[in-house]
Amino acid sequence: MTSGDRRAGERLLDIIDRFANLRLVVVGDCVADEFIYGRVARISREAPVLILEYDSTQILPGGAGNAANNAASLGARTYAFGYVGRDEIGARLLAGFHPRVETSGLIPIPGFRTPSKTRVLAGGVHATKQQIVRIDRLTNQLPVASVRTRMRSRLARALARCDGVLVSDYGFGLSSPSLVAEIKKTLAPRRVPILIDSRYHLDRYRGLTACTPNQAEVERLVGRTIDHDPRALERAGRELLTRTRMAAVLVTRGSRGMALFQPGRATIHIPIFGTDEVADVTGAGDTVIAAMTQALAAGASFADAARLANYAGGIVVMKRNTATVSADELRRAVRMDLADR
């Protein structure tokens, strides 16, 4: 290990140590991630499909909920804002939050269906269960104006004392450029970092601190394939910087790691941490943006924040289902990576 590596490692560990003193706001679309587990019994005589013997059901916060849980697991006091239905799945989603997530900003609404993604996993008694089908129960309902006003009033109080904001837009209507513009205006005097993860509408958000699209999302935005072509990646990243006017764009590339783009600076390519034999990528993007937001709120440079986000992403994809990363796991990853150099 060189002296430069040692200093970089100490800097990253110091950033992680600051996480516990932070207050983060997470606002966006909460999704119930439901996992139904079963054992393969036999092939049905009614149709060429598997018959599963039911084992159990697990419901975890997904979307903005998963981002909030990751922020809390990394150490920050986290304030979640959004909507859930006043239904059974919404109640079970709320029960799945980390103790450090304040959920009073998640407003239960009568008649509103909590968005959910049900994954059915099957396997033998001694085999790893694999996902065989996913059922999405989504919604395009928007709460009435009085509910939106109540949520924004609570959000304004949390913004007054927060250190960072993460906006999670899964396309269900809560997140909007107007809401984000309000957040930006409120926080402008304090220069609080605001990061956005938008599944379908990233180019509608402009002038924020950073965004963390995956490569497939970037390809849809620029209208062309990147694949393994470094020049295509460079052109797309620079185009996205121009179109969004972000201070930084972090493109996640799966087994090919990440690429960090900043205006007027050379692109930083970060190789994947760990193995590319992943266990599950469910919610990995939520983990990445949670770590990136937290690091920037702690005073990290974009490069250091991206490296910590890369470690966090490498850890979480080795876990099953919607999962989180702790500050201790992140510290171990930094030390392990430096020891291998």
Question: Could you walk me through the main structural features you see in this protein, from its secondary elements to its overall organization?
Answer:
- By secondary structure, this protein is α/β, with parallel strands linked by helices.
- The protein has a single domain (3-32, 62-116, 140-339), classed as Ribokinase (UDP-N-acetylmuramoyl-L-alanine:D-glutamate ligase).
- It is 36% helix and 27% strand.
- The chain has helices at residues 3-17, 64-73, 88-95, 145-159, 177-187, 215-222, 230-244, 284-297, 302-316, 327-339; strands at residues 23-28, 30-43, 50-63, 77-85, 101-109, 116-123, 130-137, 164-169, 194-198, 210-211, 248-252, 258-261, 268-270.
- The protein has a nine-stranded mixed β-sheet, sandwiched between helices.
- Helix 5 (177-187) links the parallel strand 8 (164-169) and strand 9 (194-198).
- Helix 1 (3-17) packs antiparallel against helix 10 and helix 6 crosses helix 7 (230-244).
- The longest helix is centred in the first third of the chain and has 15 residues, at 3-17.
